[in-house]
Design a protein that fits this description.
CATH topology of the largest domain: MetI-like fold
Keywords: Cell membrane, Membrane, Transmembrane, Transmembrane helix, Transport
Order of helices and strands: HHHHEEHHHHHHHHHH
Shape: globular
Number of domains: 2
Membrane topology: Multi-pass membrane protein
Strand order of the largest sheet: 1-2
Family: Belongs to the binding-protein-dependent transport system permease family.
CATH architecture of the largest domain: Orthogonal Bundle
Distance between the termini: 9 Å
Helix content: over 70%
Strand content: under 5%
Main location: membrane
Structural class: mainly alpha
GO cellular component, one term: plasma membrane
């Protein structure tokens, strides 16, 4: 198990290094002068030179990269010139919105998808299977921002059960914050649940054709016990893979939803930083999201070994 973890951690570190090079290089080759974009077209040459010096744009490319990576290694993500605040403080302030939103969305997605996938697999070719997968196909095809607008109209405008947008904060209690995030979480969860349900069904169908499942049934075990105890556990490898990918997508891909619901999360922060050409913020947030994806994949790999002990020796 130790060798298994060491190998996965090594792969994660290499991924972070490669990602840092790619992120830094891509943002550096973008057209436009960040200092000019921040100060405006009427800025004097002296002001532009001073701003470039403050932003570290006059240093050689490799020096800037090493300073940036070295700073992140000790928790210093730099300072935003737009917000006049350390980037790490901006990230911490917005993460209290994006992280709970991603967690709630993943919980909702999993709670919907796995029972639906098992239900469809147990009734392969029947009406229940056809209807379930038909609804799932619609969920995959329809974009989540359309779900978001529909949910706002029904639950916020028509029924007036939840706020249409904004975030009340956690100061008013957990329920107040969860209530503000419920509609965007549902909008994010429904399309992901549709994908996960289809994957769960496919994985279950593959396992249900194995000899040990037929043996369990021949011994007289209840069908529910065979499905949930034997089939589901052996079908969890692809399901865990999709769940790990979905959490990364939910955490990193909330720009549209956060703008629809006017949530002050990481997605909205990245959008604002890009429009304002605040590259240090974009770089810091993107690298933090990359690191979160690496950590999530490591957790998924460990769960693989827990679900299937045979993988521990690889």
């Amino acid at each position: 198990m130790t060798a298994f973890l060491a190998k996965r951690i090594g792969i994660g570190l290499i991924t972070l290094i490669v990602a840092s090079v790619v992120v830094f290089s891509v943002l550096e080759v973008l057209p436009g002068d960040p200092a000019l974009l921040m100060l405006g077209m009427n800025a004097t040459p002296e002001a532009l030179a001073s701003m470039r010096e403050q932003m570290g744009l006059n240093a050689p490319l490799i020096v800037r990269y090493l300073n940036w990576v070295g700073g992140m290694a000790v928790g210093d993500f730099g300072r935003s010139f737009t917000y006049s605040s350390p980037v790490i403080d901006l990230i911490a302030e917005r993460a209290v919105v994006s992280l709970p939103l991603a967690v709630i969305s993943l919980i909702l997605s999993t709670a919907i998808a796995i029972p639906v996938g098992i239900f469809a697999a147990a009734r392969r070719g029947k009406v229940g299977d056809t209807v379930s997968m038909g609804v799932a196909q619609v969920g995959v095809a329809v974009p989540n921002f359309w779900f978001a607008l529909l949910l706002i109209y029904v639950f916020a405008v028509w029924l007036r059960l939840v706020p249409a947008g904004g975030f009340s904060g956690w100061g008013g209690g957990i329920w107040s914050g969860v209530k503000s995030l419920m509609l965007p979480a549902i909008a994010l969860a429904l399309p992901q649940a549709a994908i996960l349900a289809r994957v769960t069904r496919s994985a279950m169908l593959e396992v249900l054709g194995e000899d040990y499942i037929r043996t369990a049934r021949a011994k007289g075990m209840p069908r529910r016990y065979v499905l949930w105890r034997h089939a589901l556990r052996n079908a969890m490898i692809p399901v865990l893979t999709i769940m790990g990918m979905q959490f990364a997508v939910l955490l990193a891909g909330t720009i549209i939803i956060e703008n629809v619901f006017y949530l002050p999360g990481l997605g909205r922060l990245v959008f604002q930083a890009i429009t304002q050409r605040d590259l240090i913020v974009v770089e810091g947030v993107v690298m933090l999201l990359v690191a979160s994806v690496v950590v999530i994949n490591l957790v998924v790999d460990v769960l693989y070994a827990v679900v299937d002990p045979r993988l521990r020796v690889r």
